[in-house]
Automatic annotation (TrEMBL):
<comment type="function">
    <text>May be involved in the degradation of misfolded endoplasmic reticulum (ER) luminal proteins.</text>
</comment>
<dbReference type="GO" id="GO:0005789">
    <property type="term" value="C:endoplasmic reticulum membrane"/>
</dbReference>
<keyword id="KW-0256">Endoplasmic reticulum</keyword>
<dbReference type="Pfam" id="PF04511">
    <property type="entry name" value="DER1"/>
</dbReference>
<keyword id="KW-0812">Transmembrane</keyword>
<feature type="transmembrane region" description="Helical">
    <location>
        <begin position="17"/>
        <end position="38"/>
    </location>
</feature>
<dbReference type="GO" id="GO:0006950">
    <property type="term" value="P:response to stress"/>
</dbReference>
<keyword id="KW-0472">Membrane</keyword>
<keyword id="KW-1133">Transmembrane helix</keyword>
<protein>
    <recommendedName>
        <fullName>Derlin</fullName>
    </recommendedName>
</protein>
<dbReference type="InterPro" id="IPR007599">
    <property type="entry name" value="DER1"/>
</dbReference>
<feature type="transmembrane region" description="Helical">
    <location>
        <begin position="59"/>
        <end position="80"/>
    </location>
</feature>
<comment type="similarity">
    <text>Belongs to the derlin family.</text>
</comment>
<feature type="transmembrane region" description="Helical">
    <location>
        <begin position="158"/>
        <end position="188"/>
    </location>
</feature>
<feature type="transmembrane region" description="Helical">
    <location>
        <begin position="100"/>
        <end position="118"/>
    </location>
</feature>
Length: 250
């Protein structure tokens, strides 16, 4: 039990509680302790009945059943693995920045969910975080099923194709990729390559709640701004969107 406790508290803060709430709420819905219909995102109930908790519970709840249990476990693995890598890598020592990115991705999921009648937000939310990590670590080699290995930049698209072939779906993954791309663009490409403002900078009150620390960690570096050279020199400085570490993304 102490080993589990040590592992649990070693998981970064936001990843830990995101994963915990996901498992707890999904189990509550699975065993009918609370009717799961109260957890899903429903436009009419949210707007007209003022059930304001639904955008939050729709993020954490996933309907576990004989046909969805394995997919739920895969989602939990991706959540734990790639959220942890982002939180201890690119956002190491900057909890407010990571939380603000999560809030932005969640808000996009909620808006799209209300517009297209999407009751469960776990899939696009997890894929959006995975996509940001993959963009920051494009050249990292990840492993997939059956021993296949490829660069991380292809992983979101592999997951999209995989679900498209197996279940005929793919829309959730596509939405996650879209949201993750918008977040990555606003966080890194827009301010650094286009000279725009940093639109996803957390407000001061979040910095006070989650102050920066001196922790320095893991994987992923922000894209570097283009540096023009003198005439006759080399072209623009190259990007560094991910260190060339080799990881197993099993």
């Amino acid at each position: 039990m102490s080993e589990f406790k040590d592992w649990y508290y070693s998981v970064p803060f936001f990843t830990r509680y995101w994963l915990t709430f996901t498992i707890v709420l999904s189990i509550i819905g699975r065993f009918g302790l609370i009717n799961y219909h109260y957890f899903v995102l429903d436009f009419y109930a949210f707007i007209y009945k003022f059930e304001i908790w639904r955008p939050i519970t729709a993020l954490f709840f996933y309907p576990i059943g004989p046909g969805t249990g394995f997919h739920f476990l895969i989602n939990c693995y991706f959540l734990y693995n790639y959220s942890q890598r982002l939180e201890t890598g690119m956002f190491a020592g900057k909890p407010a920045d990571y939380f603000y990115m999560l809030l932005f991705n969640w808000f996009c999921c909620v808006v799209i969910g209300l517009l297209v009648n999407l009751p469960i937000l776990m899939d696009p939310m997890v894929l959006s975080v995975l996509y940001v990590w993959c963009q920051l670590n494009k050249d990292v080699i990840v492993s997939f099923w059956f021993g296949t290995r490829f660069k991380a930049m292809y992983l979101p698209w592999v997951l999209l194709a995989f679900n498209l072939v197996l279940s005929g779906g793919g829309m959730m993954e596509l939405l996650g990729i879209l949201i993750g791309h918008v977040a990555f663009f606003l966080l890194f490409k827009y301010p650094q390559e286009f000279g725009g403002p940093a639109l996803l900078t957390p407000p001061a009150f979040l910095k006070q709640i989650f102050p920066d620390t001196r922790y320095v960690g893991g994987f992923g570096t922000a894209p570097q701004a283009r540096v023009p050279t003198r005439p006759g020199g080399t072209v623009f400085g190259g990007h560094n969107w991910g260190r060339g570490h080799t990881l197993g993304g099993n």
